[in-house]
Design brief:
37% helix, 356 residues, alpha/beta, 2 domains, Aspartate Aminotransferase, domain 1
Length: 356
């Protein structure tokens, strides 16, 4: 695909227009949001802070930053808050004065988009399907050069592959002349996965998203933990007041809700395992192992591709994510979110009907 064409999951309005349906009629498996929905306290937090909307938000996100620092045991100077983690992604190549951006692929498309906008050359390190798309850190080490900004998804999107956190931290320590950006946007769904935000080396940037785990993507809340000097450079490039008052309030409350995180991990694991087993039984579908709240699958290359399949399921009001725009994948790959048991059943019924 050309470097000017970009797509994301979750654009339900565009999907609905193409299907000739209202957005409320679309069951969206293209965006990976917590199937439990927002926590019960969300409405009360928004209502209780609505009166503050008559004033500008805190430009330093003081209380949100303090909550992040407490959660991950880091100095407040090491924390950056943005209008979603994409806000931080967009300034990172310039903030670190990257000579190249190296992307472990398949990967979230905005890593490359932000590098292109910044005018920084891109190199893809594409993980192999036969290895389950797992990263060989040794191969990445041989590729890295001084001045590189390297992106690794943890877990990777759309593959769900996980890299040993110790291997990534050791890599950063061994290569102080590169910047390693580890995107933990979906890490909160993975049971027992330690965050690299703890004991963060000076050349490591850990991107953290609250919107997916707490099911509030419309609020846009993203943070990063980095070395203090690097965090200062990133903050200097972000626009003022980029995190609104309600997002800051919800973010603070979310960081303290360990019970919701535990319930989410258990529920998503149960539904993912059940969905993966059923999906693997659909004729012509291969499912890749994953521990996050989504699954990558592939159709047999001798049959119809995922573009055809997505059109068929959309007739039934179900949207899946075609993965042809991810480097290293082709039109036979698609990704589905893990949703509720009933919603997953509807997806499976639609896939079986389409592929019968």
């Amino acid at each position: 695909m050309g470097m000017t064409a970009w797509t994301h999951g979750g654009d339900v309005r565009r999907i609905a227009r193409s299907a000739g349906r209202p957005p409320a009629d679309i069951l969206d498996f293209s965006a990976n949001i917590n199937p439990l929905g927002p926590p019960e306290w969300l409405r009360n937090v928004i209502v209780s802070h609505a009166g503050e909307l008559a004033r500008y938000p805190d430009p330093a996100c003081t209380e949100l930053v303090a909550a992040v620092a407490e959660r991950y045991a880091v100095p407040t100077e090491a924390v950056v808050a943005g209008n979603g983690s994409s806000d931080i992604l967009w300034v990172l190549p310039r903030a670190v004065a990257a000579r190249r951006v190296v992307i472990v692929a398949p990967a979230y498309v905005d890593y490359a988009r932000s590098a292109t906008v910044a005018g920084v050359p891109i190199v893809f390190h594409t993980c192999r399907e036969e290895d389950g798309f797992r990263l060989d850190v040794g191969a990445l080490e041989r590729l890295a050069r001084p001045g590189d900004l390297l992106y690794v998804g943890q877990p990777a999107n759309p593959t769900g592959a996980i890299t040993d956190p110790r291997a990534l931290r050791d890599f950063a320590v061994r290569h102080p002349d590169v910047v390693l950006a580890v995107d933990e946007a979906f890490a909160g769904f993975v049971d027992g996965l330690p965050s690299l935000a703890h004991r963060c080396p000076a050349n490591l940037v850990v991107l953290l998203s609250l919107t997916k785990l707490f099911a509030v993507p419309g609020l846009r809340i993203g943070v990063a933990v980095a070395g203090t000097d690097m965090a200062t450079r990133v903050r200097a490039l972000l626009p003022p007041w980029s995190v609104n008052t309600l997002a800051q309030a919800v973010g603070r409350r979310a960081l303290g809700d360990a019970e919701y995180r535990r319930r989410s991990i258990v529920y998503v694991r149960e539904q993912r395992e059940a969905l993966a087993e059923e999906l693997a039984g659909v004729p012509g579908v291969t499912v890749f192992p994953a521990r996050a709240n989504f699954l990558l699958a592939r159709l047999e290359r001798s049959g119809p591709d995922a573009v055809w399949l997505a059109a068929r399921t959309l007739r039934q009001g179900i949207a899946i994510r075609v993965c042809a725009d991810f480097t290293g994948l082709d039109t036979h790959f698609f990704r589905v979110a893990v949703r509720t048991a009933e919603e997953n059943r509807r997806l499976l019924d639609a896939l079986r009907e389409a592929l019968a």
